[in-house]
Amino acid sequence: MLRNPSGRTRQDILDWLKDPAAHFPAGRRHGDPAETGVTARAVAAKLGVSRRTAAAHLDFLSRLGLLRTRRIHCRTHYRRDEIRIAEVAAMFEKGW
């Protein structure tokens, strides 16, 4: 799931969301990205792709349970689900 070219992009997204304040500027409306999460628009700007492309990557990671979503006004904000990520990492360490 993370070993194809799209997987590298998804790994980058997960890495950036470890410390979103370092990778995404604080928004004027929604404050600190570490608290509220990051929008698809912010991820798209960082990747240099369309918002729809970034949203597809974020939705995939959300469906896997690696990201949590939160609606603020009319935008979805994404944050890492550290517990789920640790569970998945443990499965791979066990040779799953």
Structural overview:
About 55% of the residues lie in helices and about 15% in strands. By secondary structure, the protein is an alpha+beta fold. Helix 4 crosses helix 5 (about 50-65). The longest helix has 14 residues, at about 5-20. The two termini are about 15 Å apart.
Number of helices: 6
The total strand number stands at 3
Q: How would the global form be characterised? A: globular
Fraction in beta strands: 5-15%
Helical/strand content category: alpha+beta
Oligomeric nature of the chains: single chain
Cα distance spanning the termini: 13 Å
Q: What's the overall average pLDDT, rounded?
A: 86
As residue ranges, the low-confidence spans are none
Question: Rg, please?
Answer: 13 Å
Helix share, percent: 55-70%
Order of helices and strands: HHHEHHEEH
- Record the strand order, biggest sheet: 1-3-2
